[in-house]
Fold this protein.
Amino acid sequence: MSHPSHVIEQTKVLTVNNVLEVREKLEELVNEGYAKGNLFVIAHDERRTDHISEHTDATKIGILEEGPITAIANLFRSKGDELRAKLRSVGISEEHAEQLERELDKGLVVIVAWGGISYHLNEYDPKITYYWPWI
């Protein structure tokens, strides 16, 4: 199967229950044209995030996406603040980051198909498409 060669600039955010659903959604996103390097997973527990990224084509939001200041600040933040900061760095608004963190608290996994633009402070991407189970 061939993949589109154009760059996807639209960020999409999904929540799923487990690694099998992560694999399924990642395959769909790659088929839509998202680069594997722009597909991120986040779980509330760092070990679960590591496990999922090791067993799928997804990566973790890291220093390149967060920026060095946010990455260093995350060393001193609570887990919830750190998760929200990571989500904010890829353009997710404060309100949506808080909602997603509550979903992470419930054990869900967040998948971000990132459009490639980093955001800082109070900036966010108003064009993100969110896919939640309740929508």
Observations:
- The beta strands are 12-16, 39-42, 109-113, 129-131.
- Residues 1-5 have pLDDT under 50 and may be disordered.
- Helices lie at 19-32, 46-54, 63-66, 68-74, 79-89, 94-105.
- DSSP finds six helices and four strands in the chain.
